[in-house]
Amino acid sequence: MNTTAPLIDPFARAISYLRVSVTDRCDFRCVYCMAENMTFLPKAELLSLEELDRLCSSFVNLGVKKLRITGGEPLVRRGIMTFFEAMGRHLETGALEELTLTTNGSQLSRFAQPLYDLGMRRINVSLDTLKDDKFAAITRWGRLPQVLAGIEAARAAGLRVKINVVALKGFNEDELFDIQSWCAQHDMDLTFIEVMPMGDLGNEDRLDQYWPLSDLRARLATRFTLTDLTERTGGPARYVRLEETGQKIGFITPLTHNFCESCNRVRLTCTGQLYMCLGQEDMADLRAPLRNSDDDALLQEAIRNAIARKPKGHDFDYSRQKVAGQMSRHMSHTGG
Ligand code: SAM
Ligand code: SF4
Is 104 part of any domain? Predict the structure, then answer.
């Protein structure tokens, strides 16, 4: 078997992007993501930092060019900087083109500079409101000033920041233009995400909170001239430019748009399960081959076999007023 050939799936899509959840834990309890009393996985189930290094390095050797670290909250995992430093090695050699992070921002005051120093250049920070009381309500345990200070630290360190906002009906509809102009002022990109039917936290509520981005977009168009950008990232985001501010705004609508034909990504959970598609239950366990042998041959074979099973597309569908393809796993487990 050729051990260095790139990963190509049965639909001729090259797999160049890996999202990795490094922990299921978090210092927040966002209402759409976690229950307040979460039971987290026993430590032995989690991949160790060394195992994460081995696994991610195998993917990089097989042609993955972009690595996004997520969680749970990646920056609350103890010792996580050792892992980031290990991935920084691949940036230095050029094997990896981009190392990036999705974070709630709470720990950025501490970690932004070291992350920049090891080669990270861009991060996504999730933030759904600019109001203290609403922030405390939606994240349950989060405090807005701490996150705003983290964002400032990131910008000061030289990191480019993109703000991710989950669009929630009746919650942040009224802040649409405040958030947009705050991002413009600070030269930060902005992406809106449609709320997804993940987990088992009461999906009726989730449907209640559903604010279609087509509506959000129409509201933006009442004040701005929107130009569709053709650039695609292989993911579910589409972009527009607001001509008046020059801002780029992204829309992630995994439920209403079909982006599968250009999908270049797979996701790894913090327990070493590889999901070939966000909307399908099929997964491959990579922890067993990782733990069963010190040699990477077994692991690489398991990765190739998994990619050979990547499905053509996903099954999410809100249109029939029920959640088809509803996932039983939590977003914090798979990594958002
Ligand atoms: N803790 C980090 C954070 O919040 O950015 C990384 C993990 S979080 C699971 C990744 C992204 O998923 C966040 O932008 C979050 O808002 C989003 N997310 C979580 N639950 C979601 C849901 N049910 N629907 C849509 N987005 C969700
Ligand atoms: Fe934590 Fe991120 Fe989930 Fe919020 S969305 S609970 S910050 S993992």
Answer: yes
- Listed in sequence order, the residues at least 6 apart from 36 whose beta carbon sits closer than 8 Å to its beta carbon are 29, 140
- State if pTM tops 0.85: yes
Please identify, by atom number, the ligand 1 atom nearest to the C-alpha of residue 125: 5
Please write the tens of the pLDDT for every residue from 212-271: 999 999 999 999 999 999 877 777 789 999 999 999 999 998 665 566 778 888 999 999
From the CB of 34, is ligand 2 less than 6 Å away? yes
335 lines ligand 2 (CB under 6 A): no
**CATH number of 52's domain:** 3.20.20.70
Q: Ligand 1 centre from 314 Cα, in Å?
A: 19
Measured by CA distance, the residue closest to atom 5 of ligand 1 is 103
Structure tokens at 129: 């409101």
Task: Give the count of domains, the chain.
Answer: 1
Amino acid at 318: Y
CA distance 321 to 203: 11
**Residues spanned by the domain of 327:** 17-334
Residue 190: strand pairing partners: 163, 249
